[in-house]
Prior knowledge:
Elements: E1 11-15, E2 18-19, E3 25-29, E4 32-36, E5 44-52, E6 56-66, H1 92-109, E7 136-140, E8 143-149, E9 156-158, H2 167-182
Amino acid sequence: xxxxxxxxxxxxxxxxxxxxxxxxxxxxxxxxxxxxxxxxxxxxxxxxxxxxxxxxxxxxxxxxxxxxxxxxxxxxxxxxxxxxxxxxxxxxxxxxxxxxxxxxxxxxxxxxxxxxxxxxxxxxxxxxxxxxxxxxxxxxxxxxxxxxxxxxxxxxxxxxxxxxxxxxxxxxxxxxxxxxxxxxxxx
Length: 187
C-alpha cells in the first residue's frame, strides 16, 4: 500500500479548490484529497486530519487563514454543533451558485453530460421554510427535549428555536417537550 501524505491528528494548510456533493470544501495535500466541512472555495485554511481512508481524508477546520468574502456569520446559535445544516456559513446568493456548480459537476463527472444549468432560483427569505423534521428525543435534568445529533456523532443538540423551522413548528416542538415532560415520560 502506498504511503499517504497525511496522518491522523496532523495539521495541514490547504487552499480550498472545489466542493463535494455535500458542500464540504475540498483541498489537497500532495494531490491527496482532503474534505473540509465549513471551508469555502478559495480560502486558505488550517485543518486537523480527523479521518484517513484509502483515497481521501477528512479534516476539521481549525483556522481560516485567508477568509472568503462569501463567508458570513451563521444565524443559528448551534450551527457548528448541529448536523442538520451545512451551508449557513456561506452568503445565501453564493450558496445558490455553489449548488448549481455541484449539480453541473455531478452531471459531468458521473453522468458524462456537459450541461450548463440555469441559475438556481432562491427564496426571498431563506429562513423558517421547513414544515417538517425528524427529531431525536433526549432527557436533560428530568425534562424531555427534541433535537438533532451533532454532525458525525450521537451527541444531542436541542432543536428549540431552529431558524429553518417555521414558527409554528418551533411552537409545536416546545409544546411537545412541555407535554412529554409533564407526563414524566422517560427516554
